[in-house]
Amino acid sequence: MSRWVDLILRHRVLVLCLTIIMTAAMGYVVYRLPLMTSLTDMLSKETDLYRGYTEARDEFGGDELIVLAVRSDEHFTKQGLDKLRHLTDLLGNHPFVERATSFLNGGTVRSNPLDPEEIITTSYNQADIAPPKLKELVTADPLFRRITVSADGTSALITVRLQATHPNSLKGKLLEELKRRAANMHQGTTKLRTESGQLSLFDAIKQEISSDFRKLAIDAGYPKQDIHMSGFPVLITSLLQETERNIKELFPFCMVVLFLLLLYLFRRLVDSFLPILCIFPAVIWSIGLGGLVIGHISIITSAAPIIILVVGTSNVVHLVTQFRHEMGRGAERSEAIRAAFMNVGTACMLTSLTTLIGFASMFFQPMPYTRELALYAFVGVICAFLLTFMLTPVLLSFTRSVAHEREQNRTERLSVSLRFMYRLVARHTRKTAALGVLLTIASICVIPFITVENVLTNKLHKDHPIRHDLEQIQEAFGSSGDFEILVKTGKEGGLYDTQVLHGMYQLQVEMEKSKYIEGSLSIVDLVELAYGLFEAPDYLKGLQDRGAPPLPPETRCYKSEPDGRCTDSEPGRNISAQLDKMFLANFDGMDAFVDEQRQFGRMVVRVPNMSAERLVIVADQISRMAKPLFPENVSVQPNGFGLLCAVTGPEILDSSIRGLSTALLIIALLMALLFGSLRVGLLSVIPNVLPVAFAVWFTYLWAGAIDADGLTMLTVCVCIAVDDTIHFLARYHIERDRGLEIGPAVERTMMESGYGMLRTSIILVGGFSVLLMGDYMTLVSMGIMFCVTLSLAVLLDLTVMPAMAHLRWFERGSTKKTNAS
User: What is the mean pLDDT of the segment spanning 122-126?
Assistant: First the structure.
């Protein structure tokens, strides 16, 4: 270690030049990185459920829908209808919109006045219908009531389907608008040169398009407070805004917080700037290098700069603290630098290694965004380690010496507190150790009882405008609408088989008996509505109740005997032909229920806002209901983005616990190897399990459930928390190898390493507390778990660890020097 310091000091100008050049190069890469968030990156893509989800998207279109609800008491007046019609047209004419649908232009089913036996599709956008009559028709229509209009008619909902991100979309007014916007976007004109670049621009613009729609609603004459929006693109816009805020506001604020804390702890301006000056380039390097691989920054990875800055600063604080100790003893500057690296350098190396283990474990998480964060942080820890051991000696060599008396006075205040803590533990050694072990065991036992939550909208703060809009929409329309069932027949035209239609009907009836389901909508509702026009209401129900055999698709029965025999059928009136006619007539919404080959069916289930755990239970119940209702060759699978998020929660919990257990085992083995004793390695883990378990419980009590994404940080929490344990054990064994008895060795360790442990813990807690200021609850949960874990960890390392040392639990049976010394 001494030779390394001498080498760096001899070439300190070269080190500074290389650091500046590398930082400038990576800074350019960071400048070019786009902010992008994909909701599918929050899902595990290796499951059958996700494959079914993508299959449904291929058949029925993507989730790029925005629902815009406007409230007005004048919807069903001439002026109100004109205003709503104008807004619908404005949205529909937007270059990036494929279709905008309200109750005015949405399709419904009627009998042809010229031929009552024929079904026609039409809309309510007709001037000859008086507004009061229109209100009566729309609010009574099952295709519109509480779907596009509220039951009392005061809220109207417009569904906006965005153009698909596909080469076929890059034409006409969309391409012209893309060129216009590209002029004001970073590297926009460059990306326009290629088709892939155009698609990338299109995707980036769509992620912020919801602000255009809100402005159009205001231009149409609706007050801002009466406009509410929901949908995945709206949520993505919010996440992008939060991502930008994390980088442009929270990260600089974190730097200010760290500087003020360092200034309070060191009371020296130079020592306060030095750790930040050393680690800031590591942040730039890691984001630049990681960005070259990933290509963007998302809502989760936007926390990486804060994590890297805070974690990297802690090692520099240990070195600066030890450097000032040596200077306080009268050592020369260069000798003090060497002594600081000799005393705590090895511990800093091991703490960096354990932190790397924590982030490496995240590579095995099922969600892509977690692996992206792991890559940024993993590279960041390596860069921070390199700069700590390269730049810190150089920067320390430029600092001025401090008078011996002044340095002693600064450390005396902490000495009093640490000495008091040591004496208290020494008097109650067995009680302290026993309490630590018992609390650890208890904390492990209660972990299985926590509830994991992964509802996407709940990841936003409860006062967030998006949450408010969603609540208003649910109050008016009664459901969140993010749950669906995919019926797959496996053959062309199979969806029109009467057995399949019967099964879908009966499934809807059974589902709507549940208190957790507010309603459902599928092609069955169109069938029922069509038969109702022929004065044969509840046809499917009646046919099923009589136990009649399924009718062939080309035949429909109009009159049945009591035994179920059909005595009046006419191929001209068959349901298949009528449904096909609706499909070919571009009946609005038909493509949301059936694909072009008529082999896939989609059932939309309206559910209230519920927990992820309850949603999974409801989906399992539906799967069991459906199995006996359909032919064996028909697959019925609950699906939807909300269900995928809900199912991902338990997967994250399982993988997090496995990762945590593996990381603890690896850390124990590393400690055993370093200190030459398996017992020391295993026992050193005890003070680090309790803080993590307590942090999980604290977060659970605070929020009522554990955010699934926040659980991915469990392993990182324990790997950072173990840093103080490493510093304690490394220093303790150094003192024992120097010949001190257990008591004096523990006291000397408390006096020497305690300063750095307290200071770094304050820095870590203060730095991570910045995450609590965000609106994205996943990052807030991470901040809570980091702060609680690290606060409790340093307390246990200064109480339970000394007690265990007094009981000789950390003795190796030999005073032979190890690598730690």
Answer: 72
Let me know whether 664 and 788 are in one domain.
yes
Q: Are 608 and 480 in contact (CB under 8 A)?
A: yes
Contact 816, 732 (CB under 8 A): no
Mean pLDDT computed over 162-188: 81
**pTM for the whole thing?**
0.76
Whether 813 is covered by a domain: the verdict is no
Per-residue model confidence as pLDDT tens digits over 790-820: 999 888 888 888 888 888 888 875 444 443 3
| Phi, psi for 266 (deg, rounded to 5) | -95, -25
816 vs 574, higher pLDDT: 574
Count of other CB atoms within 10 angstroms of residue 398: 11
User: Could you tell me which residue, 185 or 773, shows the higher pLDDT?
Assistant: 773
Predicted pLDDT at 438: 86
Amino acid letter at 444? I
> Range of 490's domain?
483-639
pLDDT at residue 534 in the model: 44
Bridge partner list, 220: none
Which residue, 688, 695, 671, is CA-closest to 801?
688
8 A C-beta contact, residue 213 and residue 70: no
Determine the Cα–Cα distance for residues 33 and 296; give it in Å rounded to an integer: 5
Identify whether residues 35 and 94 lie together within a single domain: no
620, 639, 658: which is the final residue of a domain? 639
With 0-12 CB in 10 A as exposed, 13-18 as middle and 19+ as buried, what is 171?
exposed
CA distance 407 to 409: 5
Q: How far apart are CA 275 and CA 760, in angstroms?
A: 11
Query: Which position has the higher pLDDT, 141 or 256?
Result: 256
Tell me, yes or no, whether 412 lies in a domain.
yes
Q: Which percentage of the chain shows pLDDT scores above 90?
A: 16
Tell me whether strands 566-569 and 557-560 are parallel, antiparallel or unpaired: antiparallel
Whole-number Å distance between alpha carbons of 669 and 340: 26
| Spatial separation of the C-alpha atoms in residues 365 and 418, rounded to whole Å | 40
Cα of 655 vs its chain's centroid, Å: 16
User: Within this chain, do residues 287 and 391 fall inside the same structural domain, yes or no?
Assistant: yes
Which tokens is 683 given? 């026992």
Surface-to-core class of residue 228, CB atoms within 10 Å of its CB (0-12 exposed, 13-18 middle, 19+ buried): buried
Q: How many domains does one find in the chain? A: 3
Element containing residue 225 per DSSP (H, E): none
- 611 membership: H or E segment, kind and range: none
The distance between the two most distant Cα atoms of the chain, rounded to a whole number of Å, is 111
157 domain residue, yes or no: yes
Domain shared by 305 and 447, yes or no: yes
* Average pLDDT of span 708-735: 83
Confidence of residue 115 (pLDDT cuts 50, 70, 90): low
pLDDT class for 198, splitting at 50, 70, 90? confident
Whether residue 717 contacts residue 789, with contact meaning beta carbons closer than 8 Å, is answered with: yes
33 is a domain residue: yes
* End-to-end Cα spacing for the chain: 11
pLDDT at 59 over 70: no
Residues 293 and 271 grouped into a single domain: yes
**Do 206 and 295 lie in a common domain?**
no
Tell whether 578 and 678 lie within a shared domain: no
